[in-house]
Amino acid sequence: MPQFAYQGRNARGELVKGTLEGPTSSAVADQLFSTGVTPVHINEAKAAVAVAAGKLQLSFGEPKVELADAIARTVTWYRAHGGRAVRS
Question: Model-level pTM greater than 0.70?
Answer without folding.
Answer: no
